[in-house]
Amino acid sequence: MAIRMPRIIKKSSTAGDVPKGHFAVYVGEKQKKRFVIPISFLSQPLFQDLLSQAEEEFGFDHPMGGVTIPCSEDVFVDLTSRLNRT
User: Fold this and answer.
1) Pair 21, 47: CB distance under 8 Å
2) pLDDT digits (tens, 9 = 90+) for 13-46
3) Between 73-85 and 45-58, two packed helices, what is the crossing angle to 10 degrees?
4) Is the dihedral of CA 77, 39, 32, 56 positive or negative?
5) Cβ neighbours of residue 74 under 8 Å, at least 6 residues apart?
6) Which family is annotated (predicted)?
7) Whole-number Å distance between alpha carbons of 26 and 48
């Protein structure tokens, strides 16, 4: 029996293509990239730390129109790959 793990889905298209159970975030320092991730990440302490950093930097006024995470793409991908293993 296989266990299905949540995965990050990297996309760069419009907001209408977010699958049920996922949400879009924008990540990057200068060039923002759009990632679609499982909502299950919201309950993870590592991801909650990122959201706290986003709140400190942007408040609730995110320049991309969605949640903007203030970290490099490499850090975000590394963190989400660790979340996939838990």
Assistant:
1) no
2) 555 678 889 888 888 888 888 898 899 999 999 8
3) 150
4) negative
5) none
6) Belongs to the ARG7 family.
7) 15
Q: Within a 10 A sphere around the Cβ of 64, how many other Cβ atoms?
A: 14
Pick the closest to residue 81 from 3, 1, 4, 7 (CA basis): 7
Side-by-side strand order, sheet with 22-27: 9-10, 33-38, 22-27, 67-69
57 phi, psi to nearest 5 deg: -80, -40
| φ, ψ for residue 24, nearest 5 deg | -100, 140
**pTM for the model:** 0.72
DSSP letter, residue 17: G
Judge residue 39's burial from the number of C-beta atoms within 10 Å of its C-beta, 0-12 exposed, 13-18 middle, 19 or more buried: exposed
